[in-house]
Design brief:
The chain is built from twelve helices and four strands; from the N terminus they run αααβααβααβααβααα.
Length: 225
């Protein structure tokens, strides 16, 4: 069991290290030109100055990010199937398909079925360098599957099942089959303050801010970057 946990942590660390290398530019040792090479791609990202103003990345970091993004996705956009293929590489021991679907929808903010460079940058900016409030808003949006402003038990259960499926052998058969449902019940007991069966954004943020474990986990990328 401990070895399995170690492997899971290693995969997550690999993901964090990948992001770190992407940000610092060590994925590409060649010189990045002053302006992004956009002429050969079908999707042209917004002006660097605008993205720099909207995100927490510098112009140089955005150039590096775009170079890596274009290498993986020459068309300039990522569809859901490609996103799932890329994400599955980080969790080969399980089935990450469903969780990647939810994650893709969280990045695809305009819900057009693809993640553009702008979508990628804005999501990454929040996850890596956003405030606690921004990160919690992003997390709430991930759990709020139908985007109606509430998290239901059914939505949370879908997310929990997807996470356990993604972790694969690192959870099954060690954890009981009803572990996702138990997790959801605990979640709602803590967060559903008025006991109306749904969790609002205010309830979610208030509860998370009072949870030391959640607050520590939200600083994961801040610590490595």
């Amino acid at each position: 069991m401990s070895g399995c946990r170690t492997r899971c942590k290693r995969e997550i660390l690999k993901f964090a290290q990948y992001l770190l290398r992407l940000i610092t530019g060590s994925l590409h040792t060649d010189t990045v030109e002053d302006e992004m090479e956009m002429a050969t791609v079908r999707h042209r990202p917004e002006a660097l100055e605008l993205l720099e103003a909207q995100s927490k990345f510098t112009k140089k970091e955005l150039q590096i990010l775009y170079r890596g993004f274009k290498n993986e996705c020459p068309s300039g956009v990522v569809n859901e199937e490609t996103f799932k293929e890329i994400y599955s590489q980080f969790f080969p021991q399980g089935d990450s398909t469903t969780y990647a679907h939810f994650l893709f929808n969280a990045f695809d903010t305009d819900h057009n079925g693809s993640v553009s460079f702008e979508d990628f940058v804005m999501g990454l900016s929040i996850l890596l360098r956003g405030t606690v409030q921004e990160k919690l808003n992003w997390a709430f949006n991930l759990y709020d599957i139908n985007k109606d402003g509430y998290i239901t038990k059914e939505e949370m259960l879908d997310i929990m099942k997807a996470i356990y499926d993604m972790m694969g052998k690192c959870t099954y058969p060690v954890l009981k089959e009803d572990a996702p449902r138990q997790h959801v019940e605990t979640f709602f007991q803590k967060m559903d303050k008025n006991k109306d069966g749904v969790v609002t954004i205010d309830e979610f943020i208030e509860s998370c801010q009072k949870d030391e474990n959640i607050m520590r986990s939200m600083q994961l990328f801040e610590n490595v970057i």
